[in-house]
Amino acid sequence: MPELPEVETIKNDLAPEVKGCRFVAVAFLCPQMVRRPSPDELHQRLIGQTVQEVTRRGKYLIFRLHSGEALLLHLRMSGSLLLKLSPAEPNSYTRAIFNLGNGLELHFCDRRKLGTIELVRDEAEVTAKLGPEPLDPGLTTEVLSQRLSRRRAPIKAVLCDQAFLAGIGNMYADEALFAARIHPLKPARALSEEEIERLHQAIAEVLEAAIGNRGATISNYSDAHGQPGVHQFFFSVAHRGGEPCPVCGTAIQRIPIRNRGTYFCPNCQNK
DNA sequence: CCCGGAACCTGAAGGC
DNA sequence: TGCCTTCAGGTTCCGG
Known about the structure:
alpha+beta; N-terminal domain of MutM-like DNA repair proteins; Helicase, Ruva Protein, domain 3; five-stranded mixed sheet; four-stranded antiparallel sheet; 11 strands; 22% strand; globular; DNA-binding
């Protein structure tokens, strides 16, 4: 599942290839994934536009266009974005094809059709609702502490809330909580200052390590060239139910939180 | 504002 | 072998 490190990897792969390109043809094979405007209007407004910059906010991949508009793609659970030499055959999961005019095509593939495509005049229309970037140096432990103090939901659920912090999902929330030795069910506002400091540090370390490993491939994530990430081999607890904790050897437990599989060490992570 | 559950979606995996 | 159920989890919507 693409989270911040995976989207960051795709963005870094795409940026040098796509910057300056022009959208010369677009095909929507699954129109329901086009959020706004309508597929027809999006098509009409996108064709002819050039890409000024490719960037990321939370889990959104953003193509800033010279007109000032922005094309935002979200991969959700099963999406991938593949850079291919034109003309490239779509496969059965190809949902949209963006022809970039320089011999390249961008294929948005998504088995489950949960991904989204939207074109907006101002990207803030989409990103304004997001919380801070977890790796923003401007995000201080004090800010984190202040924001946590209002939340009584399990810390795991709060970390996955994009309005709280943008970009963390199920896998990296589990990894960060393990690194910070915090029980995933602990109410957010019950965290001590020491725990919040550890968590802040753990989030940064976990995300940076994952970016360095080009993301994690658990089911079907791949980068823009179709290659898997390797960070899953460095997971301590995520998707490792029943395996020994790398610190103490206790069997890693899996419990549902908000209907999401949550992995943790019952010995290292105290409530 | 905060919280938690359902819905969206489809292929893989497991039970019988 | 095959049908059925369950699971996977990012986001949005809705009711409390």
